[in-house]
């Protein structure tokens, strides 16, 4: 889910624009049909990015695996040193390893 400034930095579009274009393009499709991913998100496949993420206890123990991206760094951004901040029992950690898989991961439906 791409929301807020981080989603805009990554895709170049606001979340409301992505949602609106998604529903406009797929308004005639039934709920059982596969619908295409917005082009702005497809364009992010294969690009290497660095993220600063917020990890809470819920992220590690909950049934869903989600992270809150607090900032998307561009390749031009200087490397940020490791800096942990405590806030209400949560840690803000830097996840800036350039890990490149053989194939981009695809979202699972259902």
From TrEMBL:
Residues 78-110 are annotated as: Disordered. Residues 89-110 have a biased composition (Basic and acidic residues). InterPro entries: NA-bd_OB-fold. This is Replication factor A C-terminal domain-containing protein. It comes from Brassica campestris (Field mustard).
